[in-house]
Amino acid sequence: MRRLRTKIAIVGAGPSGLYLSHELRGHGIDSVMVERCSREHLERRVRAGLLEEGTVRLLRASGLGSKLDKEGLVHDGFQLRFENNLHRISTASLIGEPTYIYGQQEVVKDLLAARPLDDETLYFDAEDVRLGGITSDNPCVAFTVGPDRVLVEADFIAGCDGYHGVSRPSIPASTLTFHSRRYPFNWIGMLVSAAPFASELVYSVHPGGFALQSMRTPEISRLYLQTDARDELSDWPETRIWDELGRRLYVDMSETRARGAILEQVMVPLRATVTEPMRYGRLFLVGDAAHIFPPTAAKGLNVALEDSSALARALIAWYDRGQGDLLEGYSAARLRSVWRAQDFSSWLTWLFHPAADASAFDYNLRTASLARLAEAGSTAVAFADEYVGYSRRR
Ligand code: APR
Ligand code: PHB
């Protein structure tokens, strides 16, 4: 058994864990990270791609802005389509903030590239990861890499290991409330090698279901399509997907040329979870380990990085000034933000996704709500505020 001592043991090297470790290193606080997957897998994993201005500001302030500012796409607004009319919602004029398109795996790559070349504090491909001593002053994380069993003793553990990780299940279930909601929809997400047909995001609410055109670069489109929650990818052969995308987005996708090669395809269940509290003893839950958002409003990555930033600030206050109030307040403060983002994500999910058995009454109510958003009035301002995350961060 190899024994190591550090201040913070971080479980999981997704965006939450990597950003936390980056912030701590910038303030001279050492950490050791352990990750179940390989580096190549992390860099390739396609996830969300919309960054709020607040997230971009965090990344820039941590010295991670240069590639993002070069390659990220700045969007002053987006298109909302319903009843076959296109409406432009300008978040820049309604609330004064744009959003940015920059893939999560690019954020991950930037965070990995910012680590020292001789980095010996990040273990990939770890197996049998276990947490111990969480309620003691000496919590620890043990894992196997290659032939070695490694024991990391720390002052605190950050559980940044996502929805399927070990951190949350290491907390006695009787001390947690686990909220979970499954929406009755899935999304098929596709990464396509073709220029997006519109330069801004197009959210289309069609009687046949929701569709979204997003992008990653000027040459790579990201397309999403609502399906029933019971559907599987095998129910959706390629021609059915293209026909349905064309119909819902009102573009001609009958020509193979207009489609492009599918680089990646996933079925995403729409669900939400929140774990309360986000702390147990010396273990803090961060990002997807504590909460999942439906992808509709793209809040997952933004809220996850906010968690990391808040925990980093709390730990810095603890080590630099001996102040424990931010650590004590971490869970309550983060949960206020998390529920606010869940509220918006839930509201937008119901608004954008017509149920297969929706009545004409439901349909007309939805159209009236969308029409209110499309007017540049106070509803649109409140909507833009939540979409860019402006007030949530204050
Ligand atoms: N031990 C070590 N690492 C683990 C374990 C484990 N037992 N289980 C999972 N992990 C790793 C995963 O392999 C993954 O790399 O933890 C990491 C968690 O990363 P994410 O799931 O990306 O979660 P997070 O860093 O909180 O990022 C949130 O991810 O799912 C999206 O929408 C979400 O964009 C948001 C972002
Ligand atoms: C994405 O590009 O992945 C994306 C963008 C906006 C959303 C959801 C997903 O609302």
Could you list some keywords that capture this structure?
35% helix; FAD/NAD(P)-binding domain; single chain; binds P-hydroxybenzoic acid; eight-stranded mixed β-sheet; 2 domains; alpha/beta; 394 residues; 11 helices; D-Amino Acid Oxidase, Chain A, domain 2; binds adenosine-5-diphosphoribose
Describe it for me?
By secondary structure, the protein is α/β, with parallel strands linked by helices. It has two domains: 2-49 and 103-176 and 277-348, FAD/NAD(P)-binding domain; 183-270 and 356-393, D-Amino Acid Oxidase, Chain A, domain 2, CATH 3.30.9.10. Helix content is 35%, strand content 30%. It has an eight-stranded mixed β-sheet, sandwiched between helices. The protein has a six-stranded mixed β-sheet with strand order 9-3-2-13-20-19, with helices on one face. Strands 1-12-11-10 form a four-stranded mixed β-sheet, with no helix packed on it. The longest helix is centred in the C-terminal third of the chain and has 28 residues, at 325-352. It is globular, with a radius of gyration of 22 Å. The termini are far apart. The chain binds adenosine-5-diphosphoribose and P-hydroxybenzoic acid (PHB). Residues 48-50, 201, 214, 222, 295-298 line the site of P-hydroxybenzoic acid.
